[in-house]
Amino acid sequence: MNVLVVNAGSSSLKYQLFDMDKNTVLAKGLCERIGIDGRITHSPADKEGFKADLPMKTHADAIKYVIDALVDKNHGVVKSLKEIDAVGHRVLHGGAKFHESVLIDDKVLAAIEECIPLGPLHNPANLTGIRSCAEVLGKDFPQVAVFDTAFGMTMPEKAFLYAIPHRYYDDYKIRRYGFHGTSHRFVSARAAQMLGRPASELKIITCHLGNGSSVSAVKNGKCVDTSMGLTPLEGLPMGTRSGSIDPAVIEFISEHENKSAKEVLRILNKESGMLGITGKSSDFRDLHAEAKKGDDRCQLAIDIFTYAVRKYIGAYMAAMEGVDAVVFTAGVGENDREIRADVCKGLDFMGISLDEDKNSNAPRGTEAVISKDSSKAKILVIPTNEELVIAKDTVDIVLNRK
Ligand code: ADP
Q1: Is residue 9 domain-shared with residue 124, that is, in the same domain?
Q2: Which domain holds residue 112?
Q3: CB 126 within 8 A of CB 6
C-alpha cells in the first residue's frame, strides 16, 4: 500500500510517498511560495530529483505538480495515480474533538474548520491541503487526518485545565492541548522498544527540541502532561517564541508601546525566544558559534533554554513519581550534543547520568543510548519520524474501513 503524506502550510506543502509494504520512502519533496510564484523540489529515493519554478496559484496547483512528479517518466516513482492508495494529512489542531486520527469526511472537515480559532495559522492551510487533494484525486479518495493535539488528549484534568474561570473551558474549550503529539508518541513508543519493555509499565520524558520545542511526560504509554498549551506558544523558550511568561507582560508592553494584544502576541511568537534574547539568531548553531567567540548574550540564551528544559524534567519526574527514560529528539535534540550535555548536567542525583563520551560520539541522525551504564534512567537520542506515524495511521484506518 502506497501512502502520500502531506503537511500543508500557508505557502508551502511538504510531501512523502511511502511504500508501507516495504516500509520505505519512495520519494519526498517540497512545494514552496504557493500563492506567490511557486517552486517544487522533488527527491525520489532511487533516481535523480529536480527543482523547478512552476506557477502555483493555489495548493491544488501544487498537489497537481506533486502527482505529476510522482508519476513522471524520468523522475517518478509510480506508474500512475492508481498506485497511490491514500493520503495522510498532518493537521495542527483537533481541539477537544479529536483524540485520534480519523478518516476525513464532510463532518470531519467541518470539525477541523471549527478548530480554526484554536489554530488560526495552521488549520486553514491544513484544510486547504485536504480540499486540494479531494479536488485533484476525487472526493471519495481516502484521506486521513492526524492531529498534533491528539496525543495530549489523555492528560488528566488537573494537568490540562488552566486556573481561570471554568466557563472559559465550558464555552470555548480553552485548555492545555499540547503539540508535537505525533513526535512525542513516536519517540516514546520507540524508547519502550529500545528498553525492551512494554510502554504500559514505563515513565518516559520526551524532549522535542527544535525550532519549536516541547517536553512531554508519558506514563504507561499515555501523555499525562506536556509543556505547550492552548497554542504552541506556551512552555519552553524557543527559536523565536517566548514560551511561558507572566501574562501581565502582554498588557504592560501593550500600554507602554501602544500596541494591540495581537501585535504583542506576534512579538512573543516571532521576535522572542533565542532571537529576542540575542538579537542575532534563533538557530542554535549560530548561538554556539557566537558564544564561542565571546558573545555573552548568546551563551545566556543557551543557558535560559537548557535551564528551562531541566526544570521540566524535574517537574515531570515529580508528576510521574520517577522516570525510566529521557528522550531527546528533533533538530536540536538529535544533533546538538552540547545542549544535551547542558540539560543533563548535575541531574545524577535524580538518577539521570549522561555519559560524556557516548554523548559526544553519538552519530547524528541515528538512535543512541547516551546514559552511563550506572544511570537509573536511560538517556536516549531518537530521531523523530512524524511522517511515518501519519502513514501508519493512514494504513490502519483505511484498511479497517475496507
Ligand atoms: P522545527 O521546529 O522547525 O521542525 P527542527 O526540529 O528542524 O525545527 O529544528 C531546527 C533547529 O535545529 C535549528 O533551528 C537548529 O537550531 C537546530 N539544529 C539543526 N541541526 C543542528 C546541528 N547540527 N547542531 C545544532 N543544532 C542544530
Answers
A1: yes
A2: 2-147
A3: no
Residue nearest to atom 1 of ligand 1 (CA): 211
Q: Is 295 among the residues known to form the active site?
A: no
Across 54-87, b (16+ Cβ under 10 Å) vs e yields eebeebbbbbbbbbebbbbeebbbbeeeebbbbb
Catalytic residue, from 37, 105, 140, 148: name it. Answer: 148
CA of 240 to the centre of ligand 1 (A): 13
Residue 121: pLDDT over 90: no
Tell me what pLDDT residue 402 has.
60
Residues 362 and 278 in one domain: yes
Q: Burial level of 7, CB count in 10 A (0-12/13-18/19+)?
A: buried
Do residue 140 and residue 225 come from a single domain? Answer: no
Ligand 1 within 6 A of CB of 331: yes
Q: Please work out whether the CB of residue 179 comes within 6 Å of at least one atom of ligand 1.
A: no
Q: How far apart are CA 371 and CA 280, in angstroms?
A: 33
What cell does 97 get? 474533538
> What CA–CA distance (Å, rounded) separates 402 from 398?
6
Q: For the domain that residue 322 is a member of, what is the CATH number?
A: 3.30.420.40
Ligand 1 centroid, distance to 331 Cα (angstroms): 3
SS3 content of the chain, % helix, strand, coil (to 5): 45, 20, 40
C-alpha of residue 399 to centroid of ligand 1, in Å:
35
Strands in 222-226's sheet, in edge-to-edge order, are 222-226, 213-219, 203-209, 325-329, 378-381, 368-369
Mutational pocket test of ligand 1: of 214, 329, 335, the residue with most ligand atoms within 8 Å of the beta carbon: 335
pLDDT tens-digit readout, 368-385 = 999 999 999 999 999 999
Do 102 and 230 fall within a single domain? no
Is 357 in the same domain as 265? yes
Strands 368-369 and 213-219: unpaired
Give percent of the chain above pLDDT 90: 96
Flag whether pLDDT at 253 surpasses 90: yes
Q: Is the CB of 332 under 6 A from ligand 1?
A: yes
How much is the pLDDT for 101? 97
Mean predicted confidence (pLDDT) in 150-169: 98
Asked, for residue 349, whether it belongs to a domain, the answer is: yes
Q: Is the CB of 148 under 6 A from ligand 1?
A: no
Distance 64 CA to ligand 1 centre (A): 30
Residue 337 has pLDDT above 90, yes or no: yes
